[in-house]
Amino acid sequence: MVFLQNAWWLLVLIGVMILIHELGHYWAARLFDVRVETFSFGFGPRLFGFRKGETDFRFSAILFGGYVKMAGEQPGEENSNDPRGFLSKPRWQRVIIAFAGPFMNIILAVAVLTGLFMIHFETLPNLHSPTIGFIIPDTAAAKAGLKEGDRIVQIDNTVDPTWQDIIVKESASAQHPLTVWVDRAGQREQVTVTPTLDPKEGTGYVGWEPQTDVQVADVVAGMGAAKVGIQPGDVLKSVNERPIRSTATLLEVISQNAGKPVRLEYVRNGQPHEVEVQPSESTSDGPKRWMIGVQLKPGVVSTQLPFPEALRESIRRNVKAATLIYEVLHGILERRMSPKSLQGPIGIARAAGASAR
């Protein structure tokens, strides 16, 4: 069922993109008084449609695509000398008509995200202040000497990066050294880290996680956290005096404690609390695990952006997406990334379904 939903939303996405793209060509042609003979959604034989003025608006048999047929578009046509023909227009007008389609797709992307952000916008509080929340053992980050609490102030030539900037650099730099400057307890440190190639994703992988507030999403009745009064919405601050900058921190400390009680500091409604929690051993099949009975989530901030702010954020996100595409293609050409990093139609379908939902 999910596959069918994703496939449906993929078709909707492609259809809207085609329609907007061809409308760009059509409107530009009309602007410069070029006679448009056909506006077709799809290729092949005409299925149905209507005529308005001198243009045949139609749906054609093969819906994967579309076109705008203008008079005098090809040399040698009967009406190639028509003053309202495409080739009769000045070169600058023809260039505008040709680029109007891609330009409209850019406008569509910016407009859709702007509208979404005005309705619902989610972000991590520390997204624009990239502090490392957790270092995964035996990864490139650990071997380079990076530490929890390090704030990344520069990565290669990118100064004051966001986590999105860092992920782009990391993903496109497998087996390619990155120079990273961090603020560590007020001191500026320079570190060289070489992302490894993630064989599954085909992208670079460093092994760091962003710092974020860790919030309790749910509590399992009868387990340690519930017994000491921890509730959904509580923000966990430290475990055994170690700051909790990532959900992985809590899991690691509980595992290392091997069943011994852990001291948790948390904040509820702005007030600090401290409790001692007794972990329980997992009863499920597989390796032994110790749990305190909480489901965790990042401390996401949800809001509605006013139009100017939503527009700025939409433009920024689209620029980042375009940069990522460039970095991925560049990385593949330089053999720093695997072609696996291009998701293909299935990935696009999955993303389309997720975006629609």
Entry keywords:
disordered C terminus, 31% strand, 8 helices, six-stranded antiparallel β-sheet, four-stranded antiparallel β-sheet, Pdz3 Domain, 357 residues, alpha+beta
Describe the protein's architecture and organization.
- By secondary structure, the protein is α+β, with helices and mostly antiparallel strands.
- The protein folds into three domains: about 1-120, no CATH class; about 130-210 and about 305-345, PDZ domain (Pdz3 Domain); about 215-300, PDZ domain (Pdz3 Domain, Roll).
- It contains eight helices and 20 strands.
- Helix 1 packs across helix 8 (about 345-355), helix 2 packs across helix 7 and helix 4 (about 165-170) packs parallel to helix 7.
- The two termini are about 15 Å apart.
Tell me briefly what this model is.
With 357 residues, the chain is α+β, with helices and mostly antiparallel strands.
| Rg (C-alpha, Å) | 27 Å
Main sheet: strands, sense, barrel = 6 strands, antiparallel
How far apart lie the N and C ends? 14 Å
Tell me the CATH superfamily of the largest domain.
Answer: PDZ domain
Q: Give the second-level CATH assignment, the architecture of the largest domain.
A: Roll
